[in-house]
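Folding Problem: From Residues to Backbone Shape
Fields: amino acid sequence; protein backbone structure tokens
RECORD BEGINS BELOW THIS LINE
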Amino acid sequence: MRAVTRIKGYLEAGFLEIDNGASERGLRPVAVGRNNWLFVGSEVGGKTAAILMSLCATCKRVGIDPLAYLRDVLERISTHPASRIAELVPDQWRKIRAGPDQGESPSTSADP
């Protein structure tokens, strides 16, 4: 009876995925690399690795190349105004890089 309820719920709510493949694909790099970063050297090294992995995953999710993003941000971070730090978040960085021809106003676009 429980399986019938699950199938019925899936059929009634068209936005639900039939499987959890997307979740499993998202966790695959963590499972595969678990032994690779079992010993990251220090707690600070582990925190740094987690931050970089999070940034790369966010870049992939919003459809930008993580290497291009990190290269640009690391080159500009020392001279970028702290009051505009939100511009360096991956989704905002992508919007700014898209420029006026992608629906952004000229006042929000910036030269990289």
